[in-house]
TrEMBL record:
Compartment annotation: Cell membrane
One GO CC annotation: plasma membrane
Similarity section: Belongs to the DedA family.
Species: Synechocystis sp. (strain ATCC 27184 / PCC 6803 / Kazusa)
Ranges for domain VTT: 34-164
Topology relative to the membrane: Multi-pass membrane protein
Protein known as: Alkaline phosphatase like protein
Keyword Cell membrane tagged: yes
Amino acid sequence: MSQWITEWIPQVMNQLGYGGISLLMFLENLFPPIPSELIMPLAGFAVAQGKLELFPAIVAGIIGTILGAYPWYYIGKWVSEERLEQLADRYGKWIGLDAKDIHKSNVWFGRYGHQSVFFGRLVPGIRTIVSLPAGVNAMGLISFTLYSLGGISLWVTFLASAGYKLGDHYELVEQYLGPVSKIVLVSIVAILVLLIVRKQLRRRA
């Protein structure tokens, strides 16, 4: 991670408080290299120091994240998948995306439907781009918002609470999140497969 990002995030949060949390989480959704895995644990650390309150910090994070999800949703709605993949290959390196990421996210959505928006919000690397296939596949805005809010709320609450518990070691959240994320991803896929199998069995019955 670039040093300027790790220095800039605390500065914005210190100067703008809850508004800074929302702004940072909004930008994190537009530019994936800005990590929520550092933003919200740092907010939790600020709570532990008595600078902020936990619930408003979580709400601020949720608001910023959901607002940051809408631009990607509408891009997916207005731009074809083929064109998105071309743009990702040409310019995606600036935000850490490529055509394969776009294709995988669309396959994920096609396989698991609306549930992928909820569960995708819990997995780093998928959290941001899951908004694109939702738009490409014309998922209703209300459904998109509700499914997103469910997953976002869990993710933001987890990160902020972890930062609060770890105190000045909040940066360890990002360090240990990788292995945990893999377990979460495997669990999510297993749950979605189970839901699909149950649905197919009910149809046959």
